[in-house]
UniProtKB/TrEMBL annotation:
Annotated Pfam families: TetR_N
Protein name from the UniProt record: TetR/AcrR family transcriptional regulator
Residue stretches making up the HTH tetR-type domain: 10-70
Sorted UniProt keywords: DNA-binding
Membrane-spanning residues: none
Statement: the UniProt record of this protein carries the keyword DNA-binding: yes
InterPro entries xref list: Homeodomain-like_sf, HTH-type_TetR-like_transc_reg, HTH_TetR, Tet_transcr_reg_TetR-rel_C_sf
Domain of life: Bacteria
DNA-binding span(s): 33-52
């Protein structure tokens, strides 16, 4: 029997999250094991349970981190665009680039089962998508709200990402599809 290794890691929570993110990116969330992560960061199999008592809490934390990363990319896209129509196109491109390049992480983020970390995941998602709502502020068709337009726009983008990720749509078609999708939505005056 191998003697237990003492805990000597600097920031174990962050180390486990970073390794778990790498596993999700490479192999998907279904391949995530707390025991494997503990071995990879060089601690006993019980050490990560201090921060992640079970696998679902680790998945929740990864979803929150994923939404923070996505939100940062969406804010950058909005901030980098000078006018509303460019902003809508830019945010669509940023979303699709994330959802396609981070397909396994995005799948985990949207497959959340509302466990103990459900509130944190929901708050993370709401914060990530706030730039979408801001982009659609302004002149909208009667009966529309920025929240509703943003939700429909997000659903359109999520659908496109899913079609690309499963191989129905080729990646080189994404630019043209973004242009067509953007043309179907009101541009508003969206504040950056």
């Amino acid at each position: 029997m191998t003697p237990a290794r003492p805990y000597h890691h600097g920031n174990l929570r962050q180390a486990v999250l970073e390794r778990a993110t790498a596993v999700v990116r490479e192999r998907g969330a279904s391949e995530l094991s707390l025991r494997e992560l503990a071995a990879a960061v060089g601690v006993t199999h019980a050490a990560p349970r201090r921060y992640f008592p079970d696998r679902q809490q680790l998945l929740d934390a990864l979803a929150v981190e994923g939404f923070a990363l996505l939100g940062a990319r969406l804010r950058e896209a909005v901030d980098a665009s000078p006018d509303p129509s460019t902003r809508v196109r830019s945010i669509a491109g940023a979303y699709l680039e994330f959802a396609i390049s981070e397909a396994n992480l995005a799948e985990l983020m949207f497959a959340h089962t509302h466990g103990a970390g459900g509130d944190a995941v929901g708050e993370g998602a709401a914060a990530a998508f706030a730039p979408l709502v801001r982009v659609f502020q302004g002149d909208l068709p009667p009966g529309s709200t920025p929240q509703r337009v943003a939700l429909i726009f997000l659903a359109t983008l999520q659908g496109l990402a899913g079609l690309v990720n499963c191989g129905v749509v080729a990646v080189d078609e994404v630019g043209g599809l973004i242009d067509e999708a953007v043309a179907r939505f009101p541009q508003g005056r969206g504040e950056p």
